Amino acid sequence: MLELKNIKKRSKNGHSVQIWQYFLSRKGLYNGPIDRDFGNGTEKATKEYQRLVGLPDTGVVREDTYNIAFNDGLTELLNDFLSPPDQTSLKLVEPI
CATH no. for residue 46? Predict the structure, then answer.
């Protein structure tokens, strides 16, 4: 199962951050690079998502945020992320 709990700035779980960035991007909240780095843009978009769904805007993806995102299409987007229909529209950055 996809594990996104407690991802935050300087997260060591780059793959989870990458999936979370893609989710926020598809929700129209994040337009930065999908680069596995939970930087300021990802934090800002996370806070905006949390406000939109009625959660405290902590900027950290804890169980409450994850559960709402899971029910808000995260699982469907995961399949899309793994095989996006048009990769030219994404700013994917290869890991170093």
Answer: 1.10.101
Q: Is the distance from CB of 91 to CB of 32 less than 8 angstroms?
A: yes
**Which tokens is 72 given?**
């808000």
Contact 21, 39 (CB under 8 A): no
Structural domain count of the chain? 1
User: How far is 64 from 85, CA to CA, in rounded Å?
Assistant: 30
**Highest-confidence range of 15-19, 77-81, 85-89, 92-96, by mean pLDDT?**
15-19
pTM of the complete model: 0.74
* Dist CA 37 CA 32 (whole Å): 10
Quick check: 46 and 61 in contact, CB under 8 A?
Answer: yes
- Greater confidence (93 vs 52) lies with 52
Average pLDDT taken over every residue of the chain: 81
Report d(CA 47, CA 59) in Å as an integer: 5
